[in-house]
Specification:
2 helices, 193 residues, alpha+beta, 30% strand
Length: 193
């Protein structure tokens, strides 16, 4: 047998070309589907995280606003001693005489007033007085359900006098997807008279 009698191996058609293009198409579609699913998953998680961030920002600002409202009531009661009874709980004439308790900062006319919460601050989730509503025109959050939209947020402030200072805890609570969240800010107001 001579070398020229040996047929080259590569000339044999050992591979069946039928079905190869079908396999290539299937693999290409699988890769495309995986890519599309990855993009959809990232988009969905991005929307969920964006909503969670928005809720965290709102809660932080509501808690901060609670501190500022209490500070404003302290200032008003100091500079307007003759009208302090209008903004403080019944029977209290001095901000630093406010008894320890859980309060919401409501509105009476043009003034913010401290209103004691029935049941305390133990469970803000169940506190009906703590529920916040949002005015759709102005975006302002309020405790009053007049031409407003209910929100998922609740807020209360816990006041604890300790002689010279008033400890203020402002709590913002919300629930989303069956999970409860609470954001608390703390401040100490001094009697600087």
């Amino acid at each position: 047998m001579l070398l020229r009698d040996i047929k080259p191996y590569h000339n044999k058609n050992i591979f069946n070309q039928k079905g190869i293009t079908l396999m290539e198409t299937m693999f290409a579609l699988a890769i495309l589907v995986v890519g599309i699913l990855a993009v959809l998953t990232m988009t969905t998680s991005s929307v969920v995280l964006s909503q969670a961030s928005e809720q965290n920002i709102v809660a932080v600002n509501l808690a901060r606003e609670g501190l500022e409202l209490v500070r404003g009531i302290r200032d008003f009661s100091h500079y307007n001693m003759d009208q302090a009874a209008l903004v403080l709980p019944d029977g209290v004439l001095d901000f630093f005489s406010v008894p320890e308790g859980c309060y919401v900062v409501g509105v009476a006319g043009e003034q913010f007033v401290l209103k004691e919460v029935v049941g305390g601050c133990d469970s803000i989730a169940d506190c009906t007085d703590c529920r916040l509503f949002r005015d759709p025109e102005t975006g302002v959050y309020t405790y009053e359900d007049i031409n407003t939209t209910p929100t998922i947020f609740r807020r209360a402030v816990l006041l604890t006098p300790d002689g010279v200072n008033m400890r203020v805890l402002s709590k913002a609570f919300w629930s989303e997807h069956g999970r409860n969240h609470e954001y608390t800010l703390e401040d100490y107001l001094t009697e600087w008279q």
